[in-house]
Amino acid sequence: MVQAPALPAGFELPLKQRLPRIGAVDQVALEARAGELAKRSIKRESKLWALELAIRCCDLTTLEGQDTPGKVAALCSKALRPDPSDPSVPSVAAVCVYPNLVPGAVERLAGTGVKVASVATAFPSGQSPLDVKLREVEDVVAMGADEVDMVIDRGAFLSGRYAQVYDEICRVKDACGEAHLKVILEVSELGTYDNVRRASLIAMAAGPDFIKTSTGKLPGAATLPVHLVMLEAIRDVYEETGRRVGMKPAGGIRASKNAIQYLVQLHETLGPDWLTPDLYRIGASSLVNDILMQIRKEKTGAYQSRDYFTND
Amino acid sequence: MAEISKRGERAPVPAEWTYAPAPESREIVRLREQYGLFVGGEWLEPAESYETLSPATEEVLAQVGQASAADVSLAVAAARGAFEDGWSSLPGNERAKYLFRIARILQERSREFAVLESLNGGKPIKESRDVDVPLAAAHFFYYAGWADKLEYAFPNRTPRALGVAGQIIPWNFPLLMLAWKLAPALASGNTVVLKPAETTPLTALLFCDVLRQAELPAGVVNIVTGDGRTGAALVDAEVDKIAFTGSTEVGKAIQRRLAGTGKRLTLELGGKAANIIFDDAALDQAVEGIVNGIYFNQGHVCCAGSRLFVQESIAEPVIEKLKRRMATLRVGDPLDKNTDVGAINSRAQLEKIEELVASGREEGADVYQPPCRLPEKGYWFAPTVFTNVAQSYRIAQEEIFGPVLSVLTFRTPDEAIEKANNTPYGLSAGVWTEKGSRILWMAERLRAGVVWANTYNRFDPASPFGGYKESGFGREGGRHGLEPYLAFD
């Protein structure tokens, strides 16, 4: 029997009756399944459908030290109208920026339906005192962010202080108020699929709207097997509590083909209910242009040069 | 701004994501209208012939020969001639060259073989493309490596070839079973007369092209098509050994027939494998293993995990997960790249499956089939799972050889062993647990030729395969697979 972590009081994990069953993940079989789903052949109208969904689910992201209000303004325009020459291409779900750039994004996107997301809690490391993290969350919400992307304290998680990880997410969730919360596990620092599953369940127990793979600041961010582990954890929570938690892979998804593989996995693991920006996001920066290129190719039958798509 | 969001609303978003058809093209396969028998490197005109079908559409693909006893004798004589006329005295490394060549040609023509295998057999293209054909090539590569090392395979013994091997293969993995049979026989210096299954002769006939391309000496491999009569004629012919893969019933008949003749025999027969899930297993992956165990190749697998034993404490979530997973199985056109479950191989097999499933309903088990639209033409059966199955039901005892799973429960490891071994068969078993020591404990006690741990239906040319009890005797694959084709002085 896998040893359960020390769970804090009121820990309403899906596994009330079967607490020891955080369960295990078999690496070989998991990777085989992910590999198999990646081979689905998605063509023509079903491809176009997936590409448009990918755009609608996109969190268009810029998280650089060199970000300026001007850069964010350009990104917001792109978010609203990804392909100026094709009005049928939908807007993305959200723009994701650093806290200082939230006001500019809010101003640009007010009333458009495109959300403003801000990273917080000492992104990307999370290695700051809790009161500093909470203050940051309160600030970005006050500045008008609709969504907050927090990072878990991996140091606490890896040293077995699961309760601390859980409590911190609960506090951040409180600080968010009406704003949606996405919890970044930073999977490439967790080391094993078992840890990814455990972190997913601990995070979901604290009641966020989304769980998210990565900050995008480390190599080896989102991968198909990690994505599958997290989807399966979301499914278990849904089966046992009826609560639908959203999923956001982020980092390293640059090609349309790759984005479609994630969507296929989502579709065949959680079903059609999750195929909506309310429950699924893709964190990406360069992916959108590749999708636009593919959409144009599906519609016209020919590839266009990169020069026909705006770099923002 | 407002204008843009309005535009967003106008964009039509269909509620459902359905995958567009993604069929693999048939163009790559050129079928002849009529096929003869491949004897002594030439095509022999058969006196009689019959139609071979695509089970997915019932379309006639070609006419193939029904070899008579006289045709079989000719084939055996050709094999005998080739054996005496050089093949048996050829140095091992020379035989290896042919096998390597065959393996490489199979790889080069893999798409052609995969398409034809799915066309004639009904299995999903993703399986023939990713499993059957690559494994068939791997088998030739593997035994090519043994051809010049037979003395090392059996130290202190002097191996020599038996002579002519008669080989009879089933319809579930036509090309792969051909490879399992031919590769060790040729590597150890025998010549062969092979009879493909009645319903799936086409890849074996296409394989004759490969033999010619590889310039294998005439008569070393002869291929005679036909029904059970051809098989019986081959059993009675002047061969030194019979290797049979197929049903237990026919296997027993062959064994009776050969008793006292001095001909060697290996049998790889039916199974009713136990797939055992402990409560500490990685559940989502175990569910994948259950699905792969029984719905792989429509359950037309002798080692299929057709009896699922779930520890009672997790039976409920496992069955729920399994049913949900079954609903995502895509049943349909075998040539579609997204198809997970293809067509049942023949009308006779479909009737047998239907009969056993009806008996399961009658005996009182609960049945579940996910909603799926089956094509109107062709032979189809939806993935099926029976729960509340008792050990005494026919569906828990008899081999169904279709996409039908029987779920039973157990409480302790001892009970799992007792129930799993309580069958006349003993080909394979699966164990799912996170505990390494329990895997070994189980493997020691399961009376089955293959025990998979935390995986299922995984094959490798280096790994011996074969049964206990009514699942047959003799091993195929690995070093063990050479022994049935060798005599020792």
Polypeptide structure, described:
The complex is a heterodimer of chains A (312) and B (489). Chain A is of the alpha/beta class and 312 residues long. Chain A is 44% helix and 10% strand. Chain A has helices spanning 27-37, 44-56, 69-80, 102-109, 130-142, 154-158, 162-176, 193-205, 224-241, 256-269, 287-300; strands spanning 58-61, 94-97, 115-119, 147-151, 180-184, 210-212, 246-248, 282-284. In chain A, helix 3 (69-80) packs parallel to helix 4 and helix 7 crosses helix 8 (193-205). The model of chain A is unreliable at 1-20 (pLDDT under 50). With 489 residues, chain B is of the alpha/beta class. The interface between A and B is large, with 42 and 37 residues.
Please name the defining characteristics of this protein.
heterodimer, A: 312 residues, alpha/beta, TIM Barrel, eight-stranded parallel β-sheet, 8 strands, 44% helix, 10% strand, globular, disordered N terminus, B: 489 residues, Aldehyde Dehydrogenase, Chain A, domain 1, Aldehyde Dehydrogenase, Chain A, domain 2, 2 domains, seven-stranded mixed β-sheet, six-stranded mixed β-sheet, 20 strands, 40% helix
Q: Short description, anyone?
A:
The complex is a heterodimer of chains A (312) and B (489). Chain A has 312 residues and is α/β, with parallel strands linked by helices.
Number of helices of chain B: 16
What is the helical fraction of chain A, as a range of percent? 40-55%
- The named CATH superfamily of chain A: Aldolase class I
Structural class of chain A: alpha/beta
Helix coverage percent of chain B: 25-40%
Assign the CATH class of chain A: Alpha Beta
* Shape label of chain B: globular
Strand order of the largest sheet of chain A: 7-6-5-4-3-2-1-8
Oligomer: heterodimer
Return residue spans of chain B where pLDDT drops below 50 for at least 5 consecutive residues.
1-11
Quote the distance from N terminus to C terminus of chain A.
Answer: 52 Å
Which CATH architecture of chain A is right?
Answer: Alpha-Beta Barrel
Q: What Rg of chain A, in angstroms, do the CA atoms define?
A: 19 Å
Beta fraction of chain B: 15-25%
Instruction: Extract low-pLDDT stretches of chain A.
Output: 1-20
Number of strands of chain B: 20
The fraction of residues assigned to DSSP E strands of chain A is: 5-15%
